[in-house]
Amino acid sequence: MIGVLKDPVTRRAKVTASAVLAAITIVTCLVLPVSAMALAVLKPFLTMYSTAVFLIESLTAYFLAIQFRASRDPFLAALAGAYGFTAVLVLFQLLVFPGIFSTSGLFGAGPQTAIWIWVFWHAGSPVFVTLALLLRSPRLAASKDHLLPRIATGLMFSAPIIAVLAAFVAIAWSRLLPPLISGNSYYALQHSSVALVVLALAIVPVLVCLLITRLGDLLALWLCVSLAAGISDVLLAISASARFSLGWYAGRGISLMSSCIVLCVLILEFSRLYDQLIKSNSSLRQRAIYDGLTGAFNRGYFNEQSPRERRRAIREREPLSLLMVDVDHFKALNDSRGHQAGDDCLISIVGAIHAILRRPADFVARYGGEEFVLVLPNTPSQGATLIAEGIHQAVADIAVRRDPETAEYVTVSTGVATFDPGKDSFDLVELIRRADHAMYCAKANGRDRTCVFVAPEDADDSSGSVVSLFGRV
After folding, report:
1. Dihedral of CA 215/216/217/220: which sign?
2. Which CATH architecture has domain 299-471?
């Protein structure tokens, strides 16, 4: 099992489960002595009850099947079959119950059909749950038998089919089956060995669950509570003298609670898995777009986002500027102070750049080793050079020593290039080439300076001159 289903039982879970079980026990003990009390006949109650149980059991079976696909735990598949078995029989009981869809029930149902479907439901479901629990036995779990998932899958699909066959027997042979109800009276059921068999079968899976699972995980704990509620349901139904009595209503209420318990655990599981998925996706997103060392965006993000910024510049008729920033003498820093100092230097420089960028649309990405690229939407060349000057000053302010033996500090060289959709038609590759060319000209002219690529009057001509605006050497 995966996720919350295999979590060890906490003290809080034990207290909550004990409180639920105590509430069920108290209600059962209070109702049993007066379970024969006649109450108002509410036909809509049965429709709502059966519909709710059908939906809950179906969803539980579906969620368990999904968990089986993820974990390949045979127990989950077999348990899904048990809930599927119940869902099918509940649906048939609703269809054949007298007075719901027709006077005697659909499909030619007889007066004994509904009660025998109830018997098959409350006798068969514990059997399938017991089979599922047996697949959790330590001996089978340790065997790693590859046939177990196939056997469990067979149970998962065969249980609903068996339920259909049981419903067919209750419908087609209702006149041949022993009478358990007369009108609304359960007198025959109360004095029949069938009631003892159903009650005994309801008790068996509780004992098996305690023996095999030791209530060591949340699913086992709450499944045991659900099974115990099933015992209460059977007791109240048998003790009730007739349909629509206090015991009959109370039994169905507890039956509904029994159906909800495991579904609630599964919903908790899926909620937790969804939360983990969101966090994992966020973590993957962070890794996919951010540089793990510096916290700047990575090259992949730049390659993805910069074409969008160029298209937006064309659409809005606003300039787009690129800055290439390279750390001067970075290899010398690594050689003299070590790679950790080099890493710290890059982190500090990115922090200085982030302090300069004020607008949400501006971003910096690590383009390569010690080289960074800044994307500045809606920024002309003059504005880009001002930002470059601010970066030079910010790097000077952090005062990272390049050589511990001298008073030399780390500096950067910057190249600026601008795409103006009003007069330029070159692509992004050319814009990057121009910024890169300007940055290398800054290095060639003494480093610690900014150079700007100045295009000729003919915008289609990719040649141009590079102007050194300022330096701090």
Report:
1. negative
2. 2-Layer Sandwich (3.30)
